[in-house]
Amino acid sequence: MMKLTRSSFYYKPRGKDPEQMKAEADVRDKIEAICLEFPRYGYRRVTHQLKHEGCQINHKKVLRLMRESDLLCRVKRKWVKTTDSRHRFPRYPNLIKGMTISHLNQVWLSDITYIRIKTGFVYLAAILDAYSRRVIGYAVSTGLDTELTLKALRMAIAERQPGSGVIHHSDQGVQYASVEYVEELTGHGFEISMARTGNPYENAMMESFFKTLKYEEVYLCDYETFDDVIARLPYFLEGVYNQKRLHSALGYRSPNDFEELLLIQEGNGLPRQALLTLSVQS
């Protein structure tokens, strides 16, 4: 006969209460909003800011939530490691620092962010062409794993059909450093580039893109379920961001319009500066 204590015999595991899940998601949402507005705040300053906003919370919980959400990379100290970067896989040097990007499929930028739903979060992996700022691959999942980033990469490859030599730039997260992801890259002839750990400025264009996504779509739509995200997000990425949103760096053209102008450039032999002049004047 098994010898169990009375408490062990009657123990029933308890799942998270939906109200508790919603309350924690509310706090996580507030933390991200603070980190977007004050990107150099560490968890102690974030804790004080939350208290100023009327949220009574322990700094240890703030630290845990920021670590789980990969927000610690935004603090003032430059070399803070995030949880996802603590892995055994090889790291790669930053190949694009100081580089002049002059054509499509020269550099692809990759990163992951999370999107708030009513009872938690889902994750978005996205890939941008660094020259046109166009979203060329993306995937959404409830899991933060390599399969998420692989889906985005495979979508981008199918969309672009690039030749060898494209530089794939990301952070050092385990999703990008894993054997499966690296093999997918090398199998298609990519060169691998990674930002230094805890340094979001080395992937600043992706940071800017995610900020745009949050302020112009996510915070306005109030997603409640994973299905809401799946139904709405592709329209914003493809129908709004790629098709309509203007970028000053592209001569106040959308990414799609800019790439169409590149076709004109190739046909007429125009340099990029002439292309940008044309796009501003037309």
Counting H and I runs of at least 4 residues, what is the number of helices? 11
Q: What fraction strand?
A: 5-15%
Spatial order of strands in the largest sheet: 3-2-1-4-5
Q: How many structural units, i.e. domains?
A: 3
Structural class: alpha/beta
Please compute the radius of gyration using only Cα atoms: 21 Å
Q: Would you report the number of β strands?
A: 5
Would you identify the CATH H-level superfamily of the largest domain? Ribonuclease H-like superfamily/Ribonuclease H
Extract low-pLDDT stretches.
Answer: 73-83, 276-282
The first-to-last residue Cα distance is 86 Å
List the helices and strands in order. Answer: HHHHEEEHEHHEHHHH
**Secondary structure: helix percent:** 40-55%
pLDDT averaged over residues = 82
CATH architecture designation of the largest domain: 2-Layer Sandwich
* CATH topology tier name of the largest domain: Nucleotidyltransferase, domain 5
Tell me, what's the shape?
globular
* Major sheet size, sense and barrel closure: 5 strands, mixed
> Briefly, what CATH class of the largest domain?
Alpha Beta
